[in-house]
Amino acid sequence: MKTPLSDLPPLKGPLRAEALLAWLRTGEPEALEHLWARADELRRQGVGDEVHLRGLVEISNRCARQCAYCGLRAANRSVSRYAMSDEEILECAHQIREYGWGTAVLQSGEDPAFTSSRVEALVRRIKAETGLAITLSLGERTEEELRAWKRAGADRYLLRFETSDRALFQRIHPPLPGRECDRLGLLKLLRDIGYEVGSGVMVGIPGQGFESLARDLELFAELELDMIGLGPFIPHPDTPLGTSTPPPSADQVPATVDMAFRVLALARVQRPEANLPATTALATLDREQGRILGLQRGANVVMPNVTPLHHRARYSIYPNKASSNETAEQTRLQIDTQLASIGRSVAAGPGHSPAFRRRIREQEGAPS
Ligand code: SF4
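^ thats the input. predicted complex w/ iron/sulfur cluster below
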């Protein structure tokens, strides 16, 4: 559909679903150029020109869940499983510190070996030894665990809601037997506990329609997310969604890097003061330009992977992930070069989002 720029709603957020839908559907090149420029302008105003680097440590690829799109699902016997030792994780945290990056992101499948007390002790050690901000991305965990980790010093929690379409979510993300799966409820809980909260969606999941994607974007604003991560759906051959072909539908959101850029730019319109990563999934589909274009279309965060190389390739949520054969040092040099090429620089410090800092000030009753 080629809706001309003059007929599209102004990019003044937060936008409602109807306006978002018009922007998601337009194929007019002039309109897209306007969207990229507006997202870049809002990024500069909301979070500035500096780019926050978060060192990503994929601490375990074991998972009890059966998500229909993910190569780490429990039923996938073709992946060789690993879990890092606490000492290995600490080494990665020290490396992040040496690089001058402010945050360690600990990510894993839902691995029961990372018990509440083990993660709590790990968070305390990383804080005491490195002073880094800590982001956890360990799946759906109990309120007790989330509270204990916050008390231990964790700063942020990432939990993507993936899609606001409940029926689609249940198809791709079945709950554990006997357990309910309420990611939106968990996001609200995380916020109440005091975490800086991140979420996000996949773009182009088979069966995902444009209206539900517009609703996802509405939710970014309603949930007042501090961080938003998104990327295109990339099929994994060892998963149910990677091997089935959905019936063709005009309403199917395409799983393309261009559509992911469009959602990224609109996420910036929805949340000008949130932290938005240029994700690895973007860099995977467009190796040359994915990261840079992401940073020029709304993103202000990059998450370089510091997982030891002998584990890295096995964290295969989707195949052929960018950076899966690069050392952390190679990735660091490449990112420094890329940032210099677009006149951006690396930020120092923990890099909390202005959205989160504003919320904390308001809760403490200080003038914003
Ligand atoms: S998406 Fe996360 S919870 Fe689902 S199977 Fe993959 S690692 Fe496990």
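The pocket of iron/sulfur cluster is lined by residues 63, 65, 67, 70, 72-73, 109-110, 139, 317 (CB under 6 Å).
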